[in-house]
Automatic annotation (TrEMBL):
Residue ranges annotated for the Sulfatase N-terminal domain, each copy included: 22-416
Gene3D superfamilies according to UniProt: Alkaline Phosphatase, subunit A, Exo-inulinase, domain 1
Protein keywords: Hydrolase
Single GO MF descriptor: arylsulfatase activity
Similarity section: Belongs to the sulfatase family.
Residue ranges of every copy of the 3-keto-alpha-glucoside-1,2-lyase/3-keto-2-hydroxy-glucal hydratase domain listed in the record: 554-738
Species annotation: Roseibacillus ishigakijimensis
Pfam families hit by this protein: 3keto-disac_hyd, Sulfatase
Classification via InterPro entries: AL/BT2_dom, Alkaline_phosphatase_core_sf, Sulfatase, Sulfatase_N
Protein name listed in UniProt: DUF1080 domain-containing protein
Length: 748
């Protein structure tokens, strides 16, 4: 398949109307830091040998993306994870690693199958609603191109068709190209041989995805199947060392979107380019650069021209006849700019430019500089450019974005409503992009094995547990001042740090929930990413904060009675009843108080409240007073006007962090409370809605102004659980608690 483009000028005019069910193209590039794009204004970027440079000759030239950033918008601070697989998992699932379990490229959660064997837990099992799935459910055609980096069956990720240049080490049966490495044993030592030359190579094991690429098609043309390409006499006759993988990906993507346009159906293209990723240079085996050259493209001021590639030779001795550039990261960026231009020409050609949203980003920092780095935001800071009709924002946007945000963003754009009980960690960009909101997030988050990274607008914690002042952007985008003396930092900085510290325990499940539920796999890495020489089995109940689960959860109504509860020390009677596992309160039954006392615990429960009703679940109670998980009919109870008294919030202390996550009166809601020492967290229908630390500035301010201010040690001591009678009908079920206790070595 060969597609030829005329040189067209794609112009865009601002309109205020948001397109209905727009086509969406999401171009996810590979290993490209924000600093590599001239748009971001960094004083340094990456040279062909993985070192920092300020040489203009080694900087990319990207006129098309520069224009899209002006006419659309670009985001100053977007975070991925620190390396490929976890970032792609975050992008596709809208979740952090505590849910999808992909902590690092070589450290992924395992699942135990019925036959007892363990394997990597596929994302479509841990997270069954992903970008492709929701687009399909919204009536979109879906196409996946390029690199997958996924485990399991590729036809289970929600894509109708795909063209993959996988570079997968399992692809050993490709009969069409010998640009691949073959492991072998020589004198008892494992070495890699280049299949093209038969000679040993000093690199990582890989198969070609640039020139003479390995290509597989998923359901090509709608025909079920997964097979190697070229797959016809014509394509086999044209295939050779001059065939360039990124071109093949785009050809098949264009063929798909043309068919969708002909059928008048919206489409979602998820294009995961390899461009930006280092690779063995099959055409120049002696090259020391990490980024092989690309076909030569030239910008003439109006459009791009591409020189036809000519490559002759064999077995490592090739002549490119001046049709392939010299190596370097900047050459990959230039070719990406050319491919973005090709997308724009195709949109104009098909008459869909006004109804197509284009998104450009990357999966992690550049090789040699940021990829898999725990240092500051070297590994996480990626570019983000968004372009399309109807955007209310133009140019530079000083906001914070996580790759997890694209799941709810695409859901809102496509018109699909994510089930309220499907937990994800994203926040839709639509209100910001198309509305009047001036900010998007207060914080962003990432992970490096079991170490956590988090930043706000003023401070940042990296995966080495160092804190940085990020209130101003340095010239190289990374030389932030380290914070070593918090007394010398502003109160606003300290307040934000306390807020971020309160959020972290909610996601800190590397030790306690590393694998799929019910699986205890051998661990290969420590939380800081150091390989364990002799893999050991760790209890899945351990956690790095010095707490571990003390046995299985306790069902507090397991006996179908109130044997675990009292009302002011007396047996339960009156308004409380149990039937079919449902606990029901009619008014004036009194507060239910647990006989057991808890300090560090995890409590899960389901509840529903009557119309206009009010109730709550209190914990660590001293004489019936303690922190309260508020339960309320927000719409019809007068207290719903007060943000700190709405459902899911920590009553009078912290307002619910997310809206639109509770079900109305009469419908069941799912809730969870986790109390770990001074950290308190609430969840409502899968979304975390409270994260606060006792003693933090935020706590002190709210607590000091509340009716609890005169209670010393409020919320700090072990205490009872309380199900509140506030004069309205309320129902509970599946009320289960699990104690968390210190490890013996941490016990005092």
């Amino acid at each position: 398949m060969k597609i030829t483009f005329a040189v067209l000028a794609a112009t865009l005019q601002f309109v205020t109307a948001r397109p209905e069910k727009p086509n969406i193209v999401l171009l996810l590039t590979d290993d490209i830091s924000a600093r590599e794009l001239p748009l971001y204004g960094s004083t340094t970027w990456t040279d062909p040998f993985r070192e920092d440079t300020s040489d203009p000759a080694q900087q990319a030239h990207m006129p098309v993306l520069d224009r899209l950033a002006r006419e659309g918008c670009w985001v100053e601070t977007t975070w991925a994870a620190t390396v490929c697989s976890p970032s792609r998992a975050m992008m596709m699932t809208g979740r952090y690693a505590h849910l999808h379990k992909w902590w690092n490229n070589k450290d992924k959660g395992m699942v135990t199958r019925a036959n007892g064997k363990q394997e990597v837990w596929p994302l479509y099992e841990s997270s069954p609603l992903q970008l492709g799935h929701l687009a399909q459910k919204a009536g979109y055609g879906t196409f996946w191109a390029g690199k997958t980096q996924m485990a399991g069956d590729l036809d289970r990720f929600g894509f109708d068709e795909g063209c993959f240049t996988p570079g997968s080490l399992s692809d050993r049966d490709n009969p069409y190209t010998d640009f691949k490495h073959v492991p072998t044993m020589v004198a008892g030592e494992k070495i890699l041989l280049c299949a093209d030359t038969g000679k040993p190579v000093d690199t990582y094991w890989q198969h070609g995805w640039y020139f003479y690429p390995h290509v597989k098609l998923l359901n090509p043309g709608g025909k079920k199947g997964y097979h190697w390409w070229p797959d016809s006499e014509e394509s086999r006759a044209q295939f050779g060392p001059q065939t360039y993988g990124p071109d093949v990906e785009l050809d098949f993507a264009f063929d798909y979107l043309e068919r969708q346009v002909q059928e008048e159906k919206p489409f979602f293209i998820y294009h995961c380019s390899h461009l930006g990723h280092d690779a063995y240079d099959w055409l120049h085996p002696e090259s020391k650069s990490s980024w092989p050259g690309t076909p030569v493209v030239t910008w003439n001021g109006q459009g791009y021209e591409r020189r036809e590639v000519k490559i002759t030779g064999n077995k490592g001795n090739y002549d490119t006849h001046g049709t392939v550039t010299e190596p370097g990261m900047h050459r990959h960026l230039n070719y990406l700019d050319y491919q973005v231009w090709q997308y724009l020409q195709k949109f104009e050609e098909l008459g869909i430019a006004d109804n197509t949203l284009f998104i450009f980003t990357s999966d992690n920092g550049s090789g040699g500089y940021g990829k898999n780095s725990p240092d500051r935001q070297k590994g996480t800071h990626v570019p983000l450019i968004i372009h399309g009709k109807g955007l209310s924002k133009k140019g530079k946007q000083e906001i914070l974005v996580n790759l997890s945000d694209f799941l709810p963003t695409l859901a809102e754009l496509t018109g699909y409503e994510i089930p309220i009980d499907y937990e994800h960690n994203g926040k839709s960009l639509v209100p910001f992009l198309y509305g009047e909101e001036e900010q998007h997030r207060d914080w962003i988050y990432a992970y490096y094995f079991g170490k956590q990274l988090i930043r706000g607008h003023k401070v940042m914690k990296d995966a080495r547990d160092k804190w940085w002042d990020v209130s101003a952007v340095p010239g190289d985008l990374i030389s932030f001042p380290e914070i070593t003396d918090w007394k010398q930092i502003s109160p606003a900085h300290r307040t934000e740090r306390a807020r971020l510290e309160a959020i972290l325990p909610s996601f800190d499940l590397y030790e306690s929930a590393h694998d799929a539920p019910g699986t205890k796999a051998e661990r290969l890495f420590t939380a800081s990413g150091k390989r364990i020489k002799a893999p050991v089995k760790l209890s899945p109940e351990k956690s790095p904060d010095g707490l571990q689960a003390a046995g299985a959860p306790i069902d507090l109504f397991a006996q179908g009675d109130f044997s675990e509860w009292t009302i002011q020390g007396k047996p339960v009677a009156g308004g409380w009843t149990i039937a079919d596992g449902v606990v029901h309160l009619k008014p004036q039954g009194g507060n239910l108080l647990s006989k057991r006392s808890f300090k560090n615990f995890e409590l899960s429960f389901e509840w529903k409240v009557s119309e206009g009703g009010n109730s709550g679940v209190k914990y660590r109670c001293q004489k019936s007073l303690g922190p309260e998980y508020q339960i309320l009919d927000d719409e019809k109870h007068p207290a719903g006007k007060n943000p700190r008294q709405r459902t899911g919030g920590l009553y009078e202390i912290q307002a619910r962090l997310h809206d639109n996550c509770y079900r109305p009166a009469g419908e069941w809601n799912t809730s969870r409370i986790v109390a770990k020492n001074k950290s308190l967290a609430h969840w409502l229908n899968g979304k975390q809605v409270v994260a606060i630390k006792i003693g933090s500035p935020e706590w002190n301010e709210a607590y000091g102004a509340s009716k609890f201010a005169k209670l010393p040690d409020f919320g700090l001591k072990a205490g009872n659980l309380l199900l509140q009678d506030h004069g309205n009908e309320v129902w509970f079920r599946n009320v289960k608690v699990r104690k968390l206790k210190p490890h013996k070595k941490n016990a005092q």
